[in-house]
Design the sequence.
């Protein structure tokens, strides 16, 4: 990778960080406040992604349970 390509990638990452920090108001916070906010946002994002991946299996479980409650018959997986 040549130097100009690396500088271009660094510039794009810097622009992305500045845009992110401006939207979330990180530019007016102290360092410890930024770290705390980024930790909270990262935790919520990780929980959201984990929930999205586990949602299909949970919906399947709920549908089998609902079918059992309505009909009284067990659906074997």
Sequence:
């Amino acid at each position: 990778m040549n130097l100009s390509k690396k500088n271009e990638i660094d510039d794009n990452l810097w622009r992305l960080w500045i845009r992110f920090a401006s939207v979330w108001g990180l530019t007016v916070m102290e360092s410890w406040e930024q770290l705390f906010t980024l930790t909270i946002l990262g935790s919520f994002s990780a929980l959201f992604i984990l929930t999205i991946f586990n949602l299909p299996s949970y919906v399947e479980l709920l549908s089998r349970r609902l079918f059992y409650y309505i009909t009284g018959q067990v659906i074997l997986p």
Observations:
- The chain is about 80% helix and 0% strand.
- The chain has one domain: 3-71.
- Residues 3-71 form one domain.
- The mean pLDDT is 88.
